[in-house]
């Protein structure tokens, strides 16, 4: 498995299964090279394996997962994983010579009446088809998988997963579900946990926002890749010290802190990272899973992970400490 480095040459950590991430944050797996000894799979065969990892029927009813475009009979030798199916990623897939692009986010989440090239999403579809690149999406079915999006997030932060935050009732083993409740190997402060997240998650303009006492001690933490403020009731029920997620809004965050303070006398610490950054570790995990399948089946796939930052926010101007607060 190859990880595409940016201009700085930096590479993200590699996944080592349910145990977490490697101690060397920039170590990368060397995938197998396709050659005459390998059996080149058809797209339908690769998709069947992806659907076994992330069954489409486990996606939320409102979600749009599965194969967006691609000929089931086409051969697949290179696969690119990314969070977003946007122009920059598609251009990267073309340059790479990928036959399959797998993204976490859907291209058409709310449906459409046109894929005309005059629309920006239509141009994505046209570019993919013209270059014989299939697009496959694993979204909420990857969120709840075991291992899934939040397992990868926990692994990136060296957190020990205890259980799902919201268990899937259809899983008798209690391993699937939304979010993860985690423990730390040793207590840290909220400030230290935020610094760890800022260091180990991909860099974005937002960084990590914190609500609560920065010096409060954290022993247990809930994590949820992507938007997480719909899970506040479950977080409170879990009794954790902190919650790390993305896209936290003013009112839900304010109420969550107030309610935990009222109930226990200790406010819940909130750590708000960029949406893209909390889900990117899953790309590494997913690529490693497909890489293992490829080796087992003798496919010789070249599996890559994009490092292109597709977080929409590009800059952050912090208020000077001397002028913090409302003006007089």
UniProtKB/TrEMBL annotation:
Indicate yes or no for the key word Manganese.
no
Keywords of this entry:
Metal-binding
Which is an annotated GO molecular function term of this record? Answer: metal ion binding
Question: Record's SUPFAM superfamilies?
Answer: NIF3 (NGG1p interacting factor 3)-like
Any one cellular component term from GO for this entry?
cytoplasm
User: From which domain of life does this come?
Assistant: Bacteria
For the ligand (a divalent metal cation), the binding residues are 104-105, 143, 275, 279
- Specify whether Metal-binding is a keyword of the entry: yes
Q: How does it assemble?
A: Homohexamer.
| Sequence similarity | Belongs to the GTP cyclohydrolase I type 2/NIF3 family.
Can you say what this protein is called? GTP cyclohydrolase 1 type 2 homolog
Question: What's the source species for this entry?
Answer: Streptomyces capitiformicae
